[in-house]
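Sanity check. The docking grid for nicotinamide-adenine-dinucleotide depends on where the pocket ends up, so I'm generating a full predicted complex first rather than guessing from homology. Inputs follow.
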Amino acid sequence: MRRIADVGAAVIGTGFIGTVHVEQLRRIGVRVRGVLGSTPERGEARADALGVDRAYPSLEALLDDGSVDVVHVTSPNHLHVPQARQILEAGRHVVCEKPLAMAAADSASLVQLAERSGLVNAVNFNIRFYPLHQHVRELVASGALGDVRFVTGHYFQDWLLLQTDWNWRLEPDKGGSLRAVGDIGSHWLDLMTFLTGAQVTDVMADLTTFIPQRAQPRGPVETFSTERSTDTVEREMATEDTASILLRFANGARGAVSVSQISPGRKNSLRWEIDGSAGAAAWDSETPDHLWLGHRGQPNEILQRDPALMGAAGRAAAALPGGHVEGFDDTFGALFRAIYSDVIAGRPSERPPYATFADGHDEVLVGDAVAESARLGRWVEVDRSPAHRPVSVKAS
Ligand SMILES: NC(=O)c1ccc[n+]([C@@H]2O[C@H](COP(=O)([O-])OP(=O)(O)OC[C@H]3O[C@@H](n4cnc5c(N)ncnc54)[C@H](O)[C@@H]3O)[C@@H](O)[C@H]2O)c1
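Predicted complex below; grid placement will be based on this.
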């Protein structure tokens, strides 16, 4: 049996989230062999800053390094498909940031390739790995809430509020034609499917672009950067600042989610509530160690995250005793522990708790239905017909 310390990883992209990947890989004992930046110079500078041994000059050089077993893709969205494809073709396990792809045909082909390879393939929907989310999933599956009926919430941020706020996500050729929904709405939607065990089947969406033109700095801008350039060009905006989406789930549940990247004061606010026939649960990302449990005939409860008070899945995801608050970073550690237990085994487990490429593809299909519904102004069914379904390698 291999040990975690024998496994080598490399990280593509050294921005906001690539840094979190490097730090959390080290935390669980994985050796980070090197990073790949947008240019060799930038890669070198980030490798120095992060204390990583190597900056690879290219993806080919990275894949030539025999000590790399797993590659993490944290580059901008348009690079996910070509990089993930090259990594799988080189026989390496892959952890790809969300969204898996900007088009369903691409995510479907990645699912096929991943299945054929037998390699571990994961999409970084880290929010599943707040310990209380692992706990709620078990709670819902046990029937503690009764039949899930009504699923509501929001994902709000404010970092794109101003006309002068800029990021590659605003460029459809780099971020995709869905912006707020693809970037953060996808987390909420994946999470609700994970917690309820029910896929979204139909959507009715209203997408709005409140800021029709933005000032693009002539140089590159880091995500969540607070620096402002005065040397800018005006750009027309083609993607949504906000979304209001009505939802139908496969188990008959109904729901609604609001998504915004222009909500003043909401830095990174994800909230959800699941109302069942016997009880309810609700959570707020700004108080992530607290789970609200609602009752009709008895006082409501607050479960404070505590390994001693959660089920097996919640306990497995928790890193600290109760009262020692865990947050965003910690979800990566918990997610990576689950992924790397499959890496050590050499292949994906039967039902991985993390999102696989198949889950990432399904999220792209839901996004397509959202875009189509907004365009047509009516309900649209998520198209899981054979044309959009990756051919199952096992079945063929
Ligand atoms: N799971 C999460 O919670 C979460 C949070 C933030 C971002 N993300 C995802 O992570 C990805 C990166 O987002 P970010 O916020 O870190 O963006 P970022 O702009 O901060 O970082 C992206 C990095 O990729 C680098 N890059 C660009 N082209 C490259 C290339 N050809 N090869 C290697 N590196 C290249 C850039 O120089 C930059 O350092 C996106 O897909 C985003 O959706 C996920």
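Relevant for the grid: The CA atoms of residues 126 and 330 lie 9 Å apart.
Also worth noting: The radius of gyration is 21 Å.
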